[in-house]
C-alpha cells in the first residue's frame, strides 16, 4: 500500500517545475526552491507516522494549499503587470483557474472525507458528487485553455492614465 503514495512526490515535483517555469521574478522562484524540501520533510514524516491504509492527508493538504497560494500569487502578479494581452486570453490563466479549482475542491474533499469516517451511504454519495463536479469543472477549464489565443490589441487602447500619452509599446507594432 505504501507504493501508492509515491505518486504524490512526483506530482509535487511536476507541478513545482510548472510553476517555477511560469514565474518571471526571481523571488518567487527562490520561494518555490525553499518550499520543496519542506514538502519532502513533511511527506516523509507523514509517511512514517501514519499507517499504510490511511490517507496521507497532511502532505496532500500542504500540497494543495501551497499550489493554491502559488496560483494566487501568479495571478496577482499578472494582473499588476501591464500587457497588451488580456489575462483571461492566455493559456496560463486557464491552467491556473483549472488548477485552483481542482486543488481547492480536493482540499475540502479530503477534509470532508477525514471528518466523515463513519459516514452514511448518502454522505458518501454526496462526497462522490462533489469530487466529480470539481473534476469536471477542472477539465472544462483545461479545455478553455486549449482554445485560448493571445490577442494583441491596438495601441490606442493602451493610454497611460498618469500622463495621457501612449505607452512606448509602438516599437512592437511597427
Can you walk me through this structure?
The protein is mainly α and 174 residues long. The protein contains 6 helices and 2 strands. The protein has helices spanning 7-22, 26-49, 57-80, 91-115, 121-147, 170-173; strands at 159-160, 165-166. The chain has a two-stranded antiparallel ribbon. It is flat and about 55 Å long. The model is unreliable at 152-161 and 163-174 (pLDDT under 50).
Report how far the terminal alpha carbons are from each other: 61 Å
**What sequence of helices (H) and strands (E) makes up the elements?**
HHHHHEEH
Ranges where pLDDT stays below 50 over 5 or more residues in a row are 152-161, 163-174
- Largest beta sheet: strand ordering: 1-2
Our Rg estimate from Cα atoms comes to 20 Å
Give a nutshell description of this structure.
This protein has 6 helices and 2 strands. The chain is mainly α and 174 residues long.
Amino acid at each position: 500500500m505504501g507504493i501508492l503514495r509515491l505518486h504524490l512526490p512526483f506530482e509535487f515535483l511536476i507541478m513545482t517545475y510548472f510553476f517555477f517555469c511560469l514565474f518571471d521574478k526571481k523571488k518567487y522562484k527562490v520561494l518555490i526552491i525553499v518550499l520543496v524540501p519542506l514538502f519532502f520533510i513533511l511527506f516523509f514524516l507523514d509517511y512514517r507516522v501514519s499507517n499504510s491504509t490511511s490517507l496521507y492527508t497532511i502532505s496532500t493538504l500542504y500540497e494543495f494549499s501551497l499550489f493554491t497560494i502559488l496560483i494566487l500569487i501568479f495571478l496577482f502578479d499578472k494582473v499588476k503587470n501591464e500587457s497588451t494581452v488580456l489575462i483571461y486570453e492566455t493559456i496560463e490563466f486557464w491552467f491556473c483557474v483549472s488548477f485552483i479549482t481542482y486543488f481547492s475542491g480536493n482540499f475540502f474533499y479530503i477534509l470532508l472525507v477525514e471528518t466523515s469516517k463513519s459516514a452514511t451511504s448518502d454522505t458518501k454519495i454526496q462526497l462522490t458528487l462533489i469530487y466529480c463536479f470539481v473534476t469536471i469543472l477542472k477539465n472544462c477549464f483545461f479545455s478553455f485553455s486549449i482554445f485560448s489565443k493571445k490577442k494583441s490589441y491596438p495601441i490606442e487602447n493602451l493610454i497611460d492614465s498618469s500622463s495621457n500619452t501612449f505607452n512606448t509599446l509602438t516599437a512592437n507594432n511597427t
